[in-house]
Design brief:
The protein is of the alpha+beta class and about 350 residues long. It contains eight helices and 16 strands. The chain has two domains: about 270 residues, no CATH class; about 50 residues, no CATH class. An eight-stranded mixed β-sheet has the order 8-7-6-5-2-1-10-9, sandwiched between helices. The relative contact order is 0.16.
């Protein structure tokens, strides 16, 4: 996390495309245009964080209750961005719908607050059901095939009381989304389950989704869950790490010259980004826990959260047991020790 990261300025390009989107819909669906411009305002004013590719900060297989407990936005409106270039083969069909590749992602997030409601009327039903509050997450994603940014037709609300028990009744949309994700291998076995409530936001896009699924709004909401799945993972991981005692942020500011050029072309300016930084005095050390068994071969330990008696810390990816005479384990391959 303390390596140099190139600023990608996704929010700036997304703002330009969303403004174009809003202008197109202004005479066709004024409500959709107004909502889109509210999203533009969130992208402009929110504090922005740049994350690594696919937001791979914490070992995804370990995500669970401990991470959800740390899901508190650092700012009322927080924008997380990450490139999303996956090694796995792209699934063209998911949830019975043709998918479009998206290699750039933005999660626009805000906390439910008494004096802040960017979309009038959206908070009321959630405030009544979840008085303890929670976080709203809306995906804004780049459509590679089209070469433009688009808002999702809806978003997800993750309440502070995110836990569910064995008697919890899932929404039809949640059941359908889980089945769709499992069918393509993106949800296996019994993954950690938590409460996440889908909602519609951009009327014109949600109406298109409902029509695509034969007039079934539950199927359209299940698509919202599928479309926002990666962004929720992004937010959970980022918030967990930001709440660790040994993690800080550094500000990367834009060039005045570049912003002057963008202003001349009437484009959105580049913004200041916060980049996660592991404090130098808290670098990960490989330690031997003792015992009489043979020491393990060297292996890559992915980043994870460690809870200590007085604080929570993030342990970055590291090579454990470097120089072991038993060799190295590298993903699925074994490399024997040097002779």
């Amino acid at each position: 996390m303390d390596d140099k990261i190139d600023i990608v300025n996704y929010a700036s390009d997304a703002i330009d495309d969303l403004i174009t989107f809003a202008k197109f819909w202004k005479t066709r669906d004024a409500a959709s245009a107004a909502v889109t411009m509210k999203l533009v305002e969130l992208l402009r004013t929110g504090i922005k964080f740049l994350l690594p590719n696919c937001a791979e900060i914490v070992d995804g297989a370990s995500l669970g209750e401990a991470h959800l407990e740390l899901m508190h936005l650092p700012y009322l409106v927080t924008i997380f961005e990450a490139p999303w270039v996956m090694e796995d083969e792209f699934e063209p069909m998911l949830n019975g719908s043709l998918q479009t590749r998206s290699t750039r992602r933005i999660a626009a997030c805000w906390d439910m607050a008494d004096k802040f409601e960017p979309f009038p009327g959206l908070h009321a039903p959630f405030r009544e059901r979840f008085p303890e509050g929670g976080t709203f997450i809306v995906s804004v994603y780049y459509l590679d095939q089209v070469g433009a940014w688009s808002p999702s037709c809806g978003g997800l609300f993750v309440p502070r009381d995110f836990r569910i028990d064995d008697n919890f009744e899932y929404l039809p949309a949640s059941i359908q989304a889980t089945e769709a994700m499992r069918a393509v291998g993106r949800a296996s076995g019994k993954p950690f389950r938590f409460r996440a409530e889908p909602f519609s936001l951009v009327n014109c896009l949600f109406a298109e989704a409902v029509a695509k699924f034969g007039g079934d709004p539950d199927m359209a909401l299940s698509q919202v869950l599928v479309d926002t799945h990666d962004e929720v993972q992004m937010v959970v991981q980022a918030c967990a790490v930001l709440n660790c005692a040994n993690v800080s942020t550094v500000d990367v500011r834009p060039s005045n010259a570049k912003n002057a050029m963008r202003a001349a072309k009437q484009k959105a300016p580049f913004f200041t980004y916060k980049v996660l930084q592991l404090k130098p005095d808290a670098a990960t050390r490989s330690t031997d826990a003792g015992g009489t068994h043979a020491s393990p071969r060297a292996h890559l330990r992915r980043g994870h959260i460690r809870r200590l008696p007085d604080r929570t810390v993030w342990v970055r990816a590291s090579l454990v047991n470097r120089g072991s005479p038993r060799g190295i384990v590298d993903k699925d391959y074994e490399i024997p020790p040097a002779v």
